[in-house]
Amino acid sequence: MARLLASLLLACCAATARAQVAAPAAPATLPASYVEAFGTMWTFDAPPLDYWKARYGFTPDAAWLDHVRLASVRLPNCSASFVSADGLVMTNHHCARACITAVSPPDTNYQRAGFVARSMSDEKKCAGLYVDQLRSIEDVTSRVRSRITGRAAAARVAQRDSAIAEIQDACQRETGETCQVVSFYQGGRYSLYRYRRYPDLRLVMAPEEPIAFFGGDPDNFTYPRYDLDLTLLRVYENDAPHRPGDYLRWSAAGASDGDLVFVIGNPGSTGRLLTYAQLEYLRDVEYPGQLASLARTIAVLEAYAGTDEQRRRQYENQLFYAQNSHKAISGYRRGLLDSTLMATKHAFERDFRRRIQRAPKLRARYAGAWDAIAGARAEQRRFATRARWYGFGGSQLLAFAGVLVRLPQEAALPDSLRLPAYRGQGLETLRAQVLREVPVDKELEKLTLAAHLDAMRKELPATDPLLTALLGGRSPEVAAEALIEGTTLGDVAVRRRLAEGGAAVRASDDAMVVLARRLAPISRAVAARNARLEAVVSANAERIGEAIFAAYGSALPPDATFTLRVSDGLVRGYPYNGTVAPYRTSFYGLYARSAEFDDTAPWQLPDRWKAARERLDLATPLDFVTTNDIIGGNSGSPMISRDGEVVGLVFDGNIEQLPNRFVFTDAVARSVGVHSRAITTALRQVYDAAWIADELEGRPAAAR
Amino acid sequence: MARLLASLLLACCAATARAQVAAPAAPATLPASYVEAFGTMWTFDAPPLDYWKARYGFTPDAAWLDHVRLASVRLPNCSASFVSADGLVMTNHHCARACITAVSPPDTNYQRAGFVARSMSDEKKCAGLYVDQLRSIEDVTSRVRSRITGRAAAARVAQRDSAIAEIQDACQRETGETCQVVSFYQGGRYSLYRYRRYPDLRLVMAPEEPIAFFGGDPDNFTYPRYDLDLTLLRVYENDAPHRPGDYLRWSAAGASDGDLVFVIGNPGSTGRLLTYAQLEYLRDVEYPGQLASLARTIAVLEAYAGTDEQRRRQYENQLFYAQNSHKAISGYRRGLLDSTLMATKHAFERDFRRRIQRAPKLRARYAGAWDAIAGARAEQRRFATRARWYGFGGSQLLAFAGVLVRLPQEAALPDSLRLPAYRGQGLETLRAQVLREVPVDKELEKLTLAAHLDAMRKELPATDPLLTALLGGRSPEVAAEALIEGTTLGDVAVRRRLAEGGAAVRASDDAMVVLARRLAPISRAVAARNARLEAVVSANAERIGEAIFAAYGSALPPDATFTLRVSDGLVRGYPYNGTVAPYRTSFYGLYARSAEFDDTAPWQLPDRWKAARERLDLATPLDFVTTNDIIGGNSGSPMISRDGEVVGLVFDGNIEQLPNRFVFTDAVARSVGVHSRAITTALRQVYDAAWIADELEGRPAAAR
């Protein structure tokens, strides 16, 4: 469900700013295999017109590009599009989850049961939800860079941040729209993205989760697939349906084998510019740590929620995100374990560094960046185990205690000497987080903390000071029980009192606060050392981003930044499982997979689908695959023909696509979409919602 | 189609006989992981009763074992079983191909159109087809060994062969049945297998090939799968249906998830006793050579037959066998490229050799065998490229010429100095082959020979004497054209004249004969050297077989020898493609896969199946998977419950099972069968053959 949601940590604006780079050189010629490795997430200010013409004979004019851009919108963590003259917005079921739950009446869970408005007046307002429409892009690299004049790193970051804030503020003032400065190429370029925000969205139609997410976690990230992962919303303005100037028309035929298809959407983040040393560190250190942590979370949640229906509902989202992340990261890591992928990276890096070596100006500026990163990562490896455990992990209450203890200590230091999370606005953000009311489930906290301590005990030496402080000679279970029972930090009023000043924290005899006071000095040195090395990596990654842009201009599309991209691809099956995966699945296949698991979850069909079986032409396409370049954030992207008509709706990639995070390939990696005919067929035959299907297909209102 | 046919070269009787070994030692305890690696192809004279009891609580008595053995029969290259009181025999469609074609009337191809007898009187006699029923097994190891008294290898082989012939003859004389001495453990043990032969088989029912082999070559060796790979025959005696004392009753429910299932059948050949050096040689030398040769054959046949319907029919079988072999060998080789599989082999070999080293008697007798094999393989690697090309390959006509030239030359030598194929009975076998009338397609011969020469030219140095003799400065195409046009060896009368004596061959100016005279002396030294090394490998492989039997007795099931085995397994899905493969497929899935390829071949449904759709309960199981241990030769094996009832019909393994040839595993390797309910459902609903379904289900004849 969350499979193509954008990561919440965007690449945007995270890196440290650097001095103005040389003006982009004439793009050098790169071997085709390297170009392909950078994929096809093209920005709208640098569409690859020559490549499209050569490859597909496709020559869109500016009007085509403007039209599809304006018909596309962005949800807070997904993509979407206008698909009717009356402001219907199409996205995935898993992108509108919060709204579907929020608008459910007390006696019905629309998440499970689905929702279909019987007319416009029946549509349900999604409080707090909005979509952003990209109105313009402007290169502001020199405006940002000209403001960075300091020498010290901290000063330069502050100058960059204030330059960005000023540009954004000015834009917002002048236009009244939502403005965002985005960095591309790890800081190699800055662009001002201006959005029109539509803040009134209403739920029109959402299928039952068991069909939207048919196959559940097992089938997640796979193909052949049989999901109707769809939600239809409508934008309102002044309580009337918005009539967008640009919306995507519906294709009656939908996607066919071999068709050219464009995906317009907002991929969240890729790592195609990462150095070899960064990839090795991900593979050997970061991903294994994340996978182990997610596996613990999944095991605890399954054990805790498995037997109890109420708990199952309460934690199914959380379990879901953990399973989804575990499967995704396993796939990313599998890519990094693939010798072919790593060899491609290696060859590119060697070639790229040779080019930098050959140009004296570039060499002076950039040549040292790779070794600097490799050196930092090598040092980080030396204490990676401690760095992983030396915090306040395993319990939300312990995390609160950690922040409460650190807030006065870090606030007393000059900004540049603080731990990174406490710098600048961070201090206030953390304080606000601690003071936010959140439900705490003490039983779950105990299990989570015990699992955390147990894992920690297996990885750290028995004499480790942090471990000793945490366990105090007790078993993980006993320690967790004592800590959770010995704290009142679950009460926001208690946290508020402790957040008022250092004295209260110093005096507290709350078990978690006492513990956090002991842990804080032990862990700080490790955290500070790690932060210093992360800063080295980040600063040098930005240098490499500049170098690649300096050397090749926009010949290579930049890494994903949750900004609007257009990706070209073909509808195409692929070799799989010793045979061939078809380019599309069918309703037959849906009923087949359900029957073949004897109609058990997560392959159990909703009653509505069982009842509709006889009415359906089972040969109708359901899902299909293309070679488009997508990643988390692309969920809900429209898939359109060269005529700009909707032929499908992106909702996932296959398992083979996950390594595309680092190197794009299309031999077996595929994007998975819902076929446009599946959507209208389901609306008419299963959901008795011909009026919506008519609207999508542009039939006159009279006929509705 | 041929996927589980037995290889024509059986392991039986091929190895050289050796001196009597020590009496089997008490079975040593092997780590469970090694035992598992030897799989579950149990012989009926050593059923693993303790293991079955411990693992499944299953304790069959002798009557159960006798019953299922006598209900099972063997076709010339497949397995089968009696499945009704009136002698119905169940096997695969691809096992009865020759009969189905032979009984087709001139205007109908039953292969394509299917055949269903409307009553017994409508059944069609399969000329030349028979089944063998295993009546008894007798250990004759000491009877064979006591006759081997010579010292020279050739004498020992002759003594062994005559001992075997005498035992077989005596058995046949005494019982009037078909007797066969089979070697197990590469010669570690000899057993007398006595069969009752039933020579009158008639075709009762065969579905259309497009449903029997739905998915064709792409889906071959894969799962999920949707094939009705079935043929029903009937045994007649004295023109009346045979009433077997033992036949398998039909299970109404068929296989369910988790069920214990036994496969009774005749696996053809495995290589679980091969040494590490033998496996490496297969992986690096033999398999790559075979794959390249098969790929050439496939490319030539596809190009030649692809455009012409008549040719397509003529060569579809041949193309089929080539594709099937290519896919199988690719899978075997993938296993050998798998580091985990090779590590298992290595660990077992190290452990085994250590045990042999520790026992002085065994050490003296066997310790040198592994190094002898490794040494021979190492030497073979040095001239493997020449050995591959130094023959009369690439053309049937050239092969004829080669034999005609060599026959008088080899006949003039003492038997032991001849090339192996010309020793003993080989001389007459080869002569008979050359004198057999066979159609020769000159256009295809030219293409095949040109492809062969082209590949040869890429692998051998330009100055190679054999290559120079073949090409004579011409391009492969020109040389092939000249050779094929310059020979009359396609005419059997010409071959007969040349086979009459050496003078005719020496005088011939036929282009192929002239060429063969030049090639014979060049290639003979290479062939002789290779043969000598193969003999070293074979003799030492037999020593290792003796060693394993001497060390462990029958604790480990012997390699497959196309003799009757009983394998235990469970009905069970498995992890696949990032998700889970269900334990069974459905008729829904059949229609799905056809629709998803837009009803194109090889996923095109026969008309009868299109018409029957509305009548079928599409949720009915079609195929299913189990963890049973099978390989080529098991095609047509019944899959039975612990009650001895038919729950399915083996027809294939999944792609993950192919490496089981060398090491058995059941994590993802699966046997694929047709579900018993699919058979009766299809008979009733698709083929209007309720009388056959009734007979299978044991309904009284009155009801039929």
Can I get a quick summary?
Chain A is of the alpha+beta class and 704 residues long.
Explain the overall architecture.
2 copies of one chain form a homodimer. Helix content of chain A is 46%, strand content 14%. The longest helix of chain A is centred in the last third of the chain and has 42 residues, at 511-552. Chain A is globular and about 70 Å long. With 704 residues, chain A is an alpha+beta fold. The first copy, chain A, is built from 27 helices and 21 strands. Mean pLDDT of chain A is 91; it is low at 7-28. In chain A, the strands form 3 sheets. In chain A, strands 2, 3, 4, 5, 6, 7, 8, 9, 10, 11 and 12 form an 11-stranded antiparallel beta sheet that branches. An 8-stranded antiparallel beta sheet of chain A has the order 1-14-13-19-20-21-18-17. Chain A binds chain B through residues 215, 218-222, 224, 257, 327, 331, 576-580, 582-586, 588-589, 591-593, 595-598, 618-619, 654-655, and chain B through 215, 218-219, 221-222, 224, 257, 327, 331, 576-580, 582-586, 588-589, 591-593, 595-598, 618-619, 654-655.
Tell me the layout of helices and strands.
2 copies of one chain form a homodimer.
Chain A: H1 32-37, E1 42-43, H2 49-56, H3 62-71, E2 72-74, E3 79-82, E4 88-91, H4 97-102, H5 110-113, E5 115-116, E6 124-125, E7 131-139, H6 141-145, H7 153-175, E8 178-184, E9 189-198, E10 201-206, H8 209-212, H9 216-219, E11 231-237, E12 240-241, E13 260-265, H10 276-305, H11 309-336, H12 339-358, H13 360-366, H14 369-382, H15 384-389, H16 396-411, H17 426-435, H18 442-459, H19 465-471, H20 476-485, H21 492-499, H22 502-507, H23 511-552, E14 565-570, E15 574-576, E16 579-581, E17 584-586, H24 587-596, H25 607-612, E18 621-626, E19 638-640, E20 646-653, E21 671-675, H26 676-686, H27 690-696
Antiparallel strand pairs in A: 1-14, 2-3, 2-7, 3-4, 4-11, 5-10, 6-10, 7-9, 8-9, 10-11, 11-12, 13-14, 13-19, 15-16, 17-18, 18-21, 19-20, 20-21
Helix pairs in contact in A: 10-11, 10-14, 10-18, 14-23, 16-17, 16-23, 18-20, 19-23, 26-27
